[in-house]
Amino acid sequence: MNTTHTSNNILKYLEGEQFLELPKNGQLYFGHGKLLLSGEYFVLDGAKALGLPTTVGQSLRVQYSSSFDPKLYWKSYDPAGKLWFEVTFEFWHFNILNENPTKEMIVLQQMLRQARRQNKHFLRDGVDVHVVTQLGFPLEWGLGSSSTLIHNIADWAMISPFELAFNTLGGSGYDIACAQSEEPIIYQKGGEGPNWSPIEFNPSFKNNLYFIYLGHKKNSRDAIEYYNELRPHSPEIINTISELSMQMATANTQEEFNFLIRAHEDIVSSHLKLSPIKKEAFSDFDGEIKSLGAWGGDFILASSNGPRKYVKNYFDQKGLKVCIPYRELIVETQTPSEIKNVH
């Protein structure tokens, strides 16, 4: 897999760059970030969802060294190269050696122990293990710091990332599918496990689509708990959301796409008793706006026929400085002609 997906255009929104260097005596893994274009909330109950892998993600580097007292040393860096997380584990049971373990340390410990349960041979050699993870996006953006980590650990341990996710953090699993996909996907969580497949989502109007960061991260677990409190949800609503996801993926015009956005927002709003973000904060925007993932935080999608300068200035005046064009954030489906040009 190509691990250099971070574009220079994205980096202008960050303080620095990713450090993706192949270790001399170890491994390197990479997972894409994610955005959920449709199916939010109801994907948990089997609705089809349209997931978009992002060009930015997270890398995980592993190196080994001889040791008579093996330990696992873990360091995590943000896009600027600043160390934001560090922990040391006792090797055989992944006991935390730091005093006063944090919540993040305990979650990582659970992931490593679950990986060992899925593969009893994982990290059994008597060597020191040095792990360095590198985010390509700010933690607060909500693009999948946990899902990319789970994907990378699963690759490293040679286990199922979905089983690792479901047995630790839970969720629908669409973010795990995005982490390993090189193009947009249709995802569905079935009774026998996740089902997902790449889809040719390559809208002719993508130059009129923008992703805007709302300035704060939404707690996904709180959103899921709220959704669960309103269960059961009827099969009709699940089927309607699924149909809208498929129609959004194949929309031929921006007018059709905008209509589907409005329909999706109205249905989720009605059933979950939540106010659509456009009505709440951007009622005078020339175009349509859709929440992505848990409502009330992270990113929104703006679809407008207006010039790029209009969109940027509109959200600038709202105090929202991160406005990223679709092409600069999403891993795109390559057309046959584009594939030919690559070679």
From TrEMBL:
Signal peptide: none annotated. Keywords: Kinase, Transferase. The lineage of its organism: Bacteria, Pseudomonadati, Bdellovibrionota, Bacteriovoracia, Bacteriovoracales. It comes from Halobacteriovorax vibrionivorans. One of its GO terms (molecular function) is kinase activity. The keyword Kinase applies. It comes from the Bacteria. The keyword Transferase applies. Coiled coil: none annotated. This is GHMP kinase. InterPro entries: GHMP_GYDIA-like, Ribosomal_Su5_D2-typ_SF, Ribsml_uS5_D2-typ_fold_subgr.
